[in-house]
Amino acid sequence: MFAVSVMKCFLTPTFSAIPKPTPLALFSFASKSHPCNSTTFRHPSFLPLKSAIFSPKSAFLSIQNRGMHVEVAPPSSTGEIHVIVGPMFSGKTTSLLRRIQSESSNGRSVALIKSNKDTRYGLDAIVTHDGVKLPCWALADLSSFRQKFGPDAYDQLDVIGIDEAQFFEDLYDFCRVAADRDGKTVIVAGLDGDYLRRSFGSVLDIIPLADSVTKLTARCELCQKRAFFTLRKTEEKQTELIGGADVYMPVCRQHYVSGQVVIEAARTVLESRKDDCVSLA
Ligand SMILES: [Zn+2]
């Protein structure tokens, strides 16, 4: 009976109701009536299995196999990894900061990290497009965070937020260690795809590690429908090109595919803005 009940834990996943359960897709999208909304997918909860193995009175996990007896120290607390993806202007940073602020107001110790490649709003803060601002650590890589933050201070940390995660090559190892070994809650926000809709950096690599994945949508700049993709308005070809609304626009599938039309429209908009600037000068 024990084996059967354990199997049920695996076969009967529980899904988050935030805001709507979607058991059949890894990603799912918001209702058409609310283009900037999101739906969260959660991995099955394995807590019943874990509680069946761990003895609350013991500080060690006991493993018995073929006469061997091994005791392994469990992590001090259970970590979590939550991933927020989507195109540019879909509110990823806003969602990250909201979660961090919520954790902080619940009395948990938090820290924010962003890539030092993104200098649009200075290096000491993360700023959303609508002006919300929180102090942060701007780093070249995540592996240096513990040392720079201070090992003792790191041990006291509960929650780590990572913005623009596509720029960190060591994202997978950092998240795995922080959650599995160190018991941190890691909240990751980043682009899942680049302007050519290819996987961007290591963001998609951490999905197998994640407790939840949220794909946000923006609003298509040309037709106001839901936008899933980021279109580059300029002719630069490198994958990493830091920019805002002057370089990128969120677009729906139809307008992404008809990219030439979009780019021409964007050029027209840019030209008209230039004319406006000239006329205002
Ligand atoms: Zn569109």
Order of helices and strands: HEHEEEHEEEEHHEHEEEEEEHH
Give the terminus-to-terminus CA distance.
80 Å
Beta fraction: 15-25%
- What is the CATH top level name of the largest domain? Alpha Beta
Count the E strands: 15
Architecture of the largest domain, according to CATH? 3-Layer(aba) Sandwich
Mean pLDDT figure = 75
Q: Gyration radius, to the nearest Å?
A: 22 Å
Strand order of the largest sheet: 1-11-4-10-9-5-8
Number of domains: 2
The share of residues in helices is 25-40%
CATH topology of the largest domain: Rossmann fold
Oligomer: single chain
The dominant shape is elongated
What profile does the largest beta sheet have?
7 strands, mixed
List the helices and strands and how they pair.
Layout: H1 2-11, E1 40-42, H2 47-53, E2 61-65, E3 68-72, E4 80-85, H3 92-105, E5 110-115, E6 125-127, E7 133-135, E8 137-139, H4 145-149, H5 151-156, E9 159-162, H6 171-181, E10 185-190, E11 212-215, E12 218-219, E13 226-227, E14 229-232, E15 248-251, H7 253-257, H8 259-280
The chain binds zinc ion (ZN).
Residues 220, 222-223, 225, 251-252, 254-255 line the site of zinc ion (ZN).
